[in-house]
Amino acid sequence: MTKVLIVEDHISMRESLTAALTASGEFEIIGEVSNADYALDFCKRLHPDMILMDVCTEGGASGLKAVEAIRKNDTEIKIIVMTAFDEITYIPRAKAAGANGFVYKSKSLNYFLEVAREVMAGGTSFPEPKTIPVPKGEAPLTDREMEVLRLMCKHMTNKEIAQELFISVNTVKYHKMNMLGKTGFSKAVDLAFYMISNGWINPLY
Rounded CA gap, 82 and 90, in Å? Predict the structure, then answer.
């Protein structure tokens, strides 16, 4: 029986996942927590085999940061990240943090079960990453450009972005210039506003 910890701040989602996983006869819910900041402590105490981790949890706690912290402490535990948002950086960031799978909450509970089984069998399961639409003939934004763009949307300065990513300020400016050239925007602030207003980047997480 696979022991599962659910990190999710919506009671209805926790109840639905608990019902579906328990009914399969393959999974046992050993704990539920609404704030991702406490997930590592729960792992140390409960020793789950698998975690279902929401990106955005109670109190503004980031599930992605929790995944990274848990992975540093335990390389064996399976982690599936889930979200209701179409934020385009979540999938690559979940992979970088050490997640084994990623599921959009709009998927059916049966799909959640399929992903859980695949991950517990030693596989990985990630949807095709969403990309920013660019004019025909232009290359898509690189992972580094996406990371710079995400930090731009958090209203960080070039210096702050450079410190966060351990790159030079000139490199930040270079990435911004490339993004503007690819997307057709004349100002970085306009590109950032466009991304936030369309729900492609969530500056809070």
Answer: 9
Q: 61 vs 58, 146, 148, CA distance in Å?
A: 6, 22, 21
Say how many C-beta atoms besides its own lie within 10 A of residue 24's C-beta: 14
116 Cβ contact partners less than 8 Å away, ≥ 6 residues apart = 2, 4, 21, 27, 50, 52, 80, 101
Per residue in 142-196, pLDDT tens?
Answer: 888 988 999 999 899 999 999 999 999 999 999 999 989 888 888 888 988 888 8
29-86 tens-digit pLDDT: 999 999 999 999 999 999 999 999 999 999 889 999 999 999 999 999 999 999 998 8
Nearest to 28 by CA among 48, 8, 11: 48
Name beta bridge partners: 8: none
Which of 164, 139, 149 lies closest to 198, judged by CA?
Answer: 149
**CA dihedral of residues 141, 145, 148, 152 (deg, nearest 10):** -30
